[in-house]
Amino acid sequence: MKASFRHWLGTGSPWVWLTAGAVGLSLVMVFGLLILIAANGLAHFWPAAVVQFEHRAPDGTSEQVLGEIVEHETVPASRVRAAGGLVPDGATTVERVLLKVGNRDIGGTDFRWLPRPELYDERTPADAVVIERSEWGNLYGFVREVREGGTAVPGAWRAALAPRLARRNALHDAIERLQVDEIGAVNHELERLRLQARRDGANEATAAEKQRLDERYAALMDELAKRHAEIGRDTLLFVTAAGDEREIPLARIVRVYTPNAMNVGEKIAHYGAKLWEFVADEPREANTEGGVFPAIFGTVLLVIIMSIVVTPFGVIAAVYLREYARPGPVTSAIRIAVNNLAGVPSVVYGVFGFGFFVYFVGGSIDRAFFADKLPSPTFGTPGLLWSSLTLALLTVPVVIVATEEGLTRIPRAIREGSLALGATKAETLWRTVLPMATPAMMTGLILAVARAAGEVAPLMMVGVVKLAPALPLDGNFPYLHLDRKFMHLGFHIYDVGFQSPNVEAARPLVYSTALLLVVIIMSLNLAAIRIRNRLREKYNGAET
User: Can you give the CATH number for the domain in which 389 is found?
Assistant: First the structure.
C-alpha cells in the first residue's frame, strides 16, 4: 500500500490536481467577486418602487414617509430602544428599514433608518414621482401642475411636462456649448493676447484684436444670459408626502419618472438611459450622481500616454542589457536595481514624481518657455504629463524584464544565420531579433497596463483631482493639454467611497465604478493580447 502510494506521489499526479484545484478556486473567487460587484452596482440603475408609509413615532406623532426601500437589517432591540425607537413587548430583535427619502433641501437628509414596528399602511401610489435634479439630489413626492411663466398649463401634467423637459435639455446643451466651446475659445484667445502683450509689449494690432474679442465675448455673454432666461421660464409645482409644496425650476431638473406606473419595457428603457448617463455624462452632487465620463477619459488617456513612453524606454534598456552590455558587476548591479524597482511601493514613485518632475523639470520648463505666465505655473504643477511619466517609471521594470526574457529565448542560431548572410549586428537586431521578440514586448506592456490602470497613490501627488473642470482634450491649440489636471477611475472610487458626504448614496456608485474600471482594464488587456497573438502567429518560430 505504501509502495503504491509512493509511486502515485512519484508520478506527480497529486501536484497536478492540487495546482488545478488552486487555479479553479482562484477563478471561482475572482468571478464571485465580479458577480458581487456587478450585482451591487448595476442594480442601482433599475427604477425601484416608491413606497409610502405612515410613520407613527413612540411619542404619538405621525407623518407620511415616501421613498425607496434600500436595505433591511435586524438589530438588537436594545439598540433601537436606546435610539428612541418603538420595540414590541418581549422582542429581542427589531427589523429596521433604510429608506431613501430624498428631499434633502426640505428634510435635511437623503436616507432614514426606521424601525419596522413604527411603519403602517404600506402602499405604492401610482402617481408618486421621482425627480432627479442637477443639485440637491432626488425629490420624492407628487406633481400638482406644470407652470409656464408662473401660469398653470392646462391638461395632464405628464403631457405638459414632456415637451418642456425636452426644451430644457436642448437649452441646457446650448448653454454648455456656449460656455465650454465658444466662450472658452474666446477666453483662450484673450489669454494668448495678454501673454503676447506682456512679452512683446502692446501695439495697435493686438489692441484691435483684443477689442474684437471683447466685443465677441460681450455678444456671447448676452446670448448666454438670454438662454438662461429662457431655460428659467418653466417650473413644476411639487408636493411632498407630508404636504409641503415647492415650485421647482425645470432648469434644475434632469429627469422625472413614475416608477410605480412603469411597465417592464419602460423600466428597461429607463435602465439603459441611466447606464448611458453613467458612462457618458459628467458627475454631479459631489460625485454621487451623474456619470463618470471625465474619469473614463482621464484613465484611458493616462494609460495610452504611459504606454507610449514606457515601451521604447523599456525595450531599449532590455536590448542594451541582453545584446550589448558585457557581463560583469555593473550589469549585474543594473539587473538587481531593475528587479528591486519593481518592489518599491507606488507612493514612493509619487513622491519622486512630485519632487523631480513637477518641481525640478516642470519648474525648469516654465522658466525657459513660459516665463511670461509666471508666477502662475504651466508645467510646474501636477498634471497629466507628470502622472504618465511617474507611472512609466513605476512600470518600466516590468517591460524590461519581459522584453529581456523574450530576447533570451530567441535561438542563437537565428542570430548566427543572419550574421552569416552578411547582415550587421544592428541589422540582425532590427530586422530579425526585435520582430521575433515583439510578443514578449506586448506581454510586458500588458502587465504594465494592468498595474498602471489601477494605481491611485502616486497619482494623488502628481495630477489627479476630485473634479476636473475641463477635459485635457479640447478644440484650443495645442488641443491635447498635458499640463492639465484630470480625473481617474481609481481615485474616483477612493473619493466616492471614503470622502463622500453622503455615504449611503455613494455606496452603489463605488461598485459601479469599480466594475467599470475592471471592464476598461480587461478591454485594454484583451486588445493588447489580440495584437500579441497575431504577432505570435507571424513569428511562430520564436519562443515567448
Answer: 1.10.3720.10
